[in-house]
Amino acid sequence: MTTQRLYKPRISVLWWLSRRSYTLFVLRELSSLFVGWAVVYLLLLIRAVAGGPVAYQRFLHWSASPWAIVLNVVTAAFLLYHTVTFINLTPQAMVVQVRGRRVPPRLLLGPLYLAWLVVSAVLVWLVVG
Amino acid sequence: MAQRGRDTPEPFVWLLFSGGGMVAALVLPALLILLGVVVPLGLLGAPDHAHLLAVLRFPLTRLTLLAVCFLCLVHAAHRFRYTLQDGLKLTRFDGAIATVCYSAALLGSAAAAYLLFVSL
Fold first, then answer.
1. Interface of B with A in 6-65 (CB under 8 A)
2. Is residue B65 exposed (0-12), middle (13-18) or buried (19+ Cβ within 10 Å)?
3. A128 contact residues in B (CB cutoff 8 A)
């Protein structure tokens, strides 16, 4: 019996910095942290609104602090990156057929971006009043 | 690596991941940019407290927000689970990582349910 020698390539933990496409991939994956933070931030706002006008004012004051704004600007950038990558990927994950023919992926992007626009407009209208 | 077969919850989790990803894509940017950047910077006056309270107390708003929170958190948990595994080469800890990620998502959803249906 010969001893088995398995080939195990060494990969650095920072493998994703070696190529631009890898880095973009990992940044896209990291958007999950900012999706989580966005939900937490909105829940903190809801808690403040439920706590009454004084608690709401305190939240507004806190949300205007420099570090909160910086964090939320970075979060906004990651959320937009998530939206664009997720919408662009959808036609590849979801094959739509009409009369036995596949609808070209590009044709599906229009309605998706339109849906984003409509949902955003409704949300802004609901919040601003 | 989780076992591949019919008796794993993986397909269901992937379904929630896609649904949550789409909800997060459509809903979160507008809300966060408006309430986390535009209003705090003073570019737009803060919404009236009474108005926000009225909108949030509307039953459909509560239900929708709970669904949005749950789906977005499960999406984030699922994605972060694989980021840790692939990005940091921690595949051998899959069970522990998955448990922590999904537990955090469920805890967040429970907090959302409490805030939306008890506190408000």
1. 18, 21-22, 24-37, 39-42, 44, 46-49, 51-53, 55-56, 61, 65
2. buried
3. 34, 44, 47
pLDDT tens digit at each of 129 positions of chain A:
567 788 878 778 788 888 999 999 989 999 999 999 999 999 999 999 999 999 999 999 999 999 999 999 999 999 999 999 999 999 888 888 889 898 888 888 999 999 999 999 999 999 998
Question: Which residues of chain B neighbour A40 with C-beta distances below 8 Å?
Answer: 108
> Which helix or strand (DSSP H or E) is residue B76 part of?
helix B59-82
Structure tokens at B120: 């408000």
Of A82, A86, A129, the CB nearest to B47: A129
Q: Which CATH number fits domain B10-119: 1.20.1300.10, 3.20.20.140, 3.30.2400.10, 3.40.50.620?
A: 1.20.1300.10
Complex-level ipTM beyond the 0.85 threshold = yes
Helix (H) or strand (E) holding A101: strand A101-102
Distance CA B38, CA A68 (A): 12
Q: What is the pLDDT of residues B11-20, one digit of tens each?
A: 899 999 999 9
